[in-house]
Structures are given as C-alpha cells and as structure tokens.
Known about the structure:
The protein is an all-alpha fold. It has five helices and no strands. α1 runs parallel beside α3, α2 packs antiparallel against α3 and α2 runs parallel beside α4.
Amino acid sequence: MNHPLLQSIAAASIAPISTFGVQNLSNTAWAYARLRVANSEPLMAAISSSSLSRISAFDPQSLANTSWSCARFCFGDQTLLNAIAAE
Length: 87
C-alpha cells in the first residue's frame, strides 16, 4: 500500500470536502479507516466538520460507516459522535 500517495490524496481532499455528498463523506472516512492510513486526523477533522451540518441527511449505513471510522482511528470528536447518536 502506498501511504504517501493516500496521504497526498487526503490532503488534496480537505479543501473541496464541503462539496462532498453525505455518502462520499462516509465512504471516504470508511476507506481511510479500513486501510489504516496514518496521520489521517486532518482529513477526519474535515469530514467531521462537513458532516455536522448535514448529519440528518445521513442514512443508517453512512452513520454506521462514519462512527466506525471514528472508532477505528480513535478519533474522538464528541460533537460528531453525539450527533450520530442522536440520529
């Protein structure tokens, strides 16, 4: 696995992340968590920030993928996790 490439893709994804749909957000979080890409905190923070305002649009699978990704990375954004739990 090419972690430098994945980290470059993650860095390039942060700026346009507000244009991602909810499935794109949850799938991106899931993919990076599944591959255990190191140093993904900036990407996860951007996903979290973008997800919060649209959390009610997430379907159950997207909520599950996003919460699993947070757990896998030990990414403890309590605001996001509370919003997911409230759904």
